[in-house]
Amino acid sequence: MTNLLPLVAADPQAAAALPTTLGGKAANLARLEAQGLPVPPWYAVSTHAFERALATAALRERIAARLETAGSDDSLRRASEEIRGWIAALDLPSDLIREIEQAHTARIPGDSFVAVRSSAAGEDAAGESFAGLHDSFLFIRGRERVLDAVRRVWASGYNERALAYRRAKGIPLDSIAVGVVVQQMVDARASGVLFTANPNTGDVHEIVISSLWGAGEGLVSAGFDADTFVIDKETREIAPEVVSKRERLLLDAEAGGGLVRTEVPADLQDRPSLSNDHILELARVGLAVERQLRRPQDIEFAVDAAGRLYLLQARPVTTVEELGPAAGNPLIWDNSNIIESYSGVTSPMTFSFIRRAYSIVYHCFAEVMGIDERAVRANREVFENMLGLFRGQVYYNILNWYRLVRLFPGFEYNRAFMESMMGVRESARLAENEEKKERGAWQRYTVELPALVRLVGRSVWNFVRIRRIVGDFQIYFRERYERWSALDFRAMAPHELAALYRKMEDELLWQWKAPIINDFFVMVFYGTLKKLCVSWCGDESGSLQNDLLAGEGGIESTEPTRMLLGLAARARQEPELQKVLLERTPEELAREIPTDPRFPDFAAQIARYLDLYGFRCVNELKLEELSLRDRPAFLYQVLRNYLGGDPAALDVSAMEEREQRIRKEAEARAFAAIRSKGGLFPRASIFRRVLGNARLGVKNRENLRFARTRIYGLLRELLRAMGGHFAAAGLLDREEDVFYLTLDE
User: Fold this and answer.
1) Is 0.85 topped by the overall pTM?
2) If exposure means fewest CB atoms within 10 Å of the residue's CB, which of 366, 453, 597, 682 is most exposed?
């Protein structure tokens, strides 16, 4: 068995197994050195050597028997003293001594001073921190002193405080495996500690460096005043806090080792102990370590008289819970474009559905955009992680949106349009810095350009057929919606409801290509119309574009509002009905109007409204919201609001005439401005074609969104029916509690 494992470099597979044989500290040093980072020469005495030395002296059984009798604190202290005495008096195996001598000669220059530190297995594990529980010995020189220090480090594994810590953590007292690191000492001009996450606030976006003149023991053990530098990870901006540093610890060369306490020269006391170059170099190195070790790190460092930086050790910061940015995975979450649809707290059920729905719909989007199937499979995690849920709030994963945009054919040729279309331009720089996927010139012409040509051709063909594509989808949708909405969900068994959901997903979500094509159509022509209104019509306010789109007929989502306005207008013409509606509470009206013999026609119209549009609610894309069928009182509240307002606002015909007037006046302004420019270029014809397509696309978009609202209404009823089954079976207290579950559950 190899007792000694000096490591100059290690491949990742070997490094992954190092903690069990070298202990945490040595394993981390091996990884740092494998990265090419500045680490003082070192070698490690493995845990195998410790186990072999105990076995040779037959100490393991003796130690276990002694610890069994250590019940009280006093007996634990006495057991610790005895065990440490046994280990300190060990005769080391001759082959172990020989390997230590060979490693020392090969790794440690000349007659240098070394530090001998513990490297126990699990020493720096997350949730467990043995830091400070085991002993370290500094400025050791000479064969016998090194061997003695190794024994004393082993013995410190049985320190009273280490045993008490293991007992408190439920860790067996006799399963201690102690490795040892022997490392060349740095005669430090300055030294300190770097945290790649702020240890005071837990902020993983900040690096904190504490440093002082002389050896780091002045900071760790003596408690000297130290400078503090806080560095922003993204901008590398440094926020310094320089203090007056009166004392330092230096190597006591005259005494042959050890540290001596001296006064800091007057000209250095108020100067920063680190230059900006050293601070930025430490930040760079710290982030490299963090990315390699995948957790926030606590790193000890030293700078020698020549200004060379050395990393002495690294261990995880066990008090920081958030690991995303700190683990080398910067994430950007933004809800500015989704908060209107999912305001307030969103239930687990709704989030689980929309997360899956976004993944499916963007698989359809990829197909429409001509993204290669292999690229889709290779980026599966992107499609599956477009959204996040934080404290009940829904957010977009912006970097994943950008990664999706980068997959679009012709991205490198039409970058600005693609980024603007998806609304991710601000994160482009971050994603590019992270991924480093710039394409070479040959790939732009042999891969990107042909893909862009195919995309343009496919898009033109889809745009030419947009009326047919949308019309066919609407027929397809209505057929399924009418069939599913006629079902009595409450009479269906749970397995039938689950099967129906899967059918909805297969037959609608996975067929959502027409709305995607139309959204792309709208993006092109709505965006073009906006630019033409500015450049050809001189409108900088944006009002002309909106006025040109006003008064478009055939938008299904406006029908519920028109019907409610008609109901309110009728109620205003019947004084008795109006009086009842204004004097009773919405809850009373919901109970009484359906059976009031005075208003049968009005009650019938309310029933018809609920039959047609009862699936609607305030937050229509949140499945946990009560629909108008579940909460008809809200419908009466809306009617009361209309009756309490301006009577002229209830005139639907007047409203339509006003919108048509706004539309015609906008057209007159636009074409007058275009004609004033003159020239041979057929601006008016082009503008009229763009305007017509923008109007068509917006109308289609609103109708398709209303179709989406209908499906949400069906799914809401299906889930409530499922919740009713669970409540009846005693699995839930109420049927509404189903929204605290997820789709998978």
Assistant:
1) no
2) 597
